[in-house]
Design a protein that fits this description.
single chain; 14 strands; five-stranded mixed sheet; five-stranded antiparallel sheet
């Protein structure tokens, strides 16, 4: 196990020992923001991993939300492709009329109806591109223009997701505030870009078209586009990543062991 992974696990143990921690807010992503705050990390939207070379994802015990792997803009054909799609296929925001919405999970193995049109992604291995296909209500193709290159996609994946830390937490609400208790940590390493493409083709990884409007903060009322957000259900994580290490704090306590210390690292055999 790498030194940075040991350091992260040690920090997780200190956080787990605290029990329930008040969330920094009551939003859907508070579980992740609160954990990162405990690590001493400020919120950001960087294309780089959260902690050194490790990307961190947090979910509550019974959450059914998809895991957002990373965001990526289109490579072409225009420099502002998401804006073109918004103006052509989106709908005006109900509150901020001059802004547009275009949101929905799109798959490679089936069509998705978003407002007035059907959407689908084509993983084109010959062109080494992923195309966005758009159809009318009768499922006649309108365009196959927007794309992302395999090269830029692979570069983003290897930069962001080579190493993944997945943290599970219990959640409760008291006096209108969310509280989280972090109890399980897993360390993964991505299998390959080829495996990523296969899962995309099979519909196990979806791409969320994310054209939206900010509802709060300094950017309220402004267009807040994430372009494409690649997402995966929790139960497919093991198909994209190899598990290197896992520790369940609750099970550890239940087994009445004295402590979790350095000798566990020495006794645990991990893949390179």
């Amino acid at each position: 196990m790498e030194k940075i992974e040991k350091k992260l696990i040690t920090k997780f143990l200190k956080i787990a020992e605290k029990g329930y921690i008040k969330g920094i807010n009551n939003s859907d992503n508070s579980v992740g923001l609160t954990f990162e705050d405990e690590l001493g990390k400020s919120p950001d939207s960087s294309f780089l991993p959260d902690y050194k070379n490790i990307e961190i994802k947090c979910k509550t015990r019974f959450s059914r939300f998809l895991i957002s792997l990373f965001a990526k803009s289109f490579d072409g054909p225009t420099d502002f492709e998401m804006r073109r799609l918004l103006l052509t296929y989106g709908k005006p925001d109900s509150e901020f009329k001059s802004k547009y919405l275009l949101q929905g999970n799109v798959y490679a193995n089936k069509m998705t109806l978003i407002y007035e049109n059907y959407f689908q992604f084509d993983v084109n291995r010959k062109d080494k591109k992923i195309y966005l296909l758009i159809y009318d209500k009768n499922k006649n193709i309108i365009e196959k223009i927007s794309y992302v290159n395999f090269y830029s996609l692979k570069k983003r994946i290897l930069a962001k997701l080579t190493n993944l830390c997945f943290v599970c937490a219990s959640k409760k609400k008291e006096y209108g505030n969310l509280f989280f208790r972090y109890y399980k940590i897993s360390i993964y390493r991505i299998k390959s870009f080829e495996k990523f493409l296969c899962l995309l083709e099979d519909g196990k990884i979806s791409i969320n078209l994310c054209g939206r409007v900010a509802r709060s903060g300094e950017r309220i009322g402004r267009q807040q586009n994430k372009n494409m957000v690649f997402k995966i259900p929790r139960y497919y994580i093991s198909e994209l990543f190899d598990k290197k290490f896992e520790f369940d704090y609750d099970k550890y306590i239940a087994r009445n062991k004295k402590c979790f210390n350095n000798h566990i690292f020495k006794k645990t055999t991990l893949p390179d």
